[in-house]
């Protein structure tokens, strides 16, 4: 099955060997997304809500570059470093998914950079390109 790398304009160089998203057979797989600027620096240090918003905006950019919208998201994998931030993450998350919610899970774990408080990976069904 052919696949296409999805790299929104302005995307920096990843810190590992991956692309922001991959489109295959009408499905976008969005890599684990951290609250990084284009130089891989953590943004909004200490603010889980602002980091979540940054992550979801980045994911939105990947999905839109692939021809979809956030309504096309069917599954999210959420990673938080501290359950104390769970309510803040959920509050922002709900803004991006106001209607029928995607399936998801959320776990607490360490992330690749200590100042990152949240990471999200997504799957969206955007349909096949003509």
UniProtKB/TrEMBL annotation:
Any single GO CC term annotated in Swiss-Prot or TrEMBL for this entry: cytosol
Keyword Transmembrane appears in the UniProt entry: no
CDD domains according to UniProt: YjgF_YER057c_UK114_family (cd00448)
Top enzyme category: hydrolase
Cited Pfam families: Ribonuc_L-PSP (PF01042)
NCBIfam families, A to Z: RutC
Protein name: 3-aminoacrylate deaminase RutC
UniProt source species: Pseudacidovorax intermedius
Lineage summary: Bacteria, Pseudomonadati, Pseudomonadota, Betaproteobacteria, Burkholderiales
Gene responsible for this protein: rutC
């Amino acid at each position: 099955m052919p696949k296409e790398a999805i790299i929104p304009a302005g995307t920096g160089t990843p810190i590992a060997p991956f692309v922001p998203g991959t489109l295959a057979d009408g499905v976008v797989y969005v890599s684990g997304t951290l609250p990084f600027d284009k130089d891989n620096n953590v943004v909004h240090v200490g603010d889980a809500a602002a980091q979540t918003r940054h992550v979801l905006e980045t994911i939105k950019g990947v999905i839109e570059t692939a021809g979809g919208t956030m309504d096309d998201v069917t599954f999210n994998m959420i990673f938080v470093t501290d359950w104390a931030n769970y309510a803040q993450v959920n509050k922002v998350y709900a803004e991006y998914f106001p209607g029928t919610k995607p399936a998801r899970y959320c776990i607490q774990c360490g992330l690749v950079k200590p100042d990152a408080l949240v990471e999200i990976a997504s799957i969206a069904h955007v349909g096949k390109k003509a």
